Amino acid sequence: MADSEVDGVRALWRSMAEGWRLGDAEAFGAAFADDVEFVTVRGEELRGRAAVVAGHARLFAGPFKGTRLIPEIRMVRSFGAGLTLVHAVTVIEPGGPATHAQALVAGNESGRRIVAFHNMTVTAPGGEQK
Fold this sequence. Notes:
29% of the residues lie in helices and 42% in strands. By secondary structure, the protein is α+β, with helices and mostly antiparallel strands.
């Protein structure tokens, strides 16, 4: 896998984290394709970037106002044809949950966007939330 592919994936998650830090749902949503399929930690299915932006605007105005998203890319696997599978763990600070996401990224060096995103809450082996 080319370093540029991994760098592009890391840049997407950095842009999401920066949008989150700013409480800017549009900036957060810029990492996602217009027609993204996004499954939230509650199992809600959001279709399209506009739905992701609207949902995160509510979060940034409410329970996650003033928080930060700390991402850790755990796996990047290329499937050719500009498709990359990504596993990422994020922690919301302060005091938020840890989540694990599986995402499909499409694009190349000139631009990448997340086209599918499935997010879930991480639990420790004993079942406690991390």
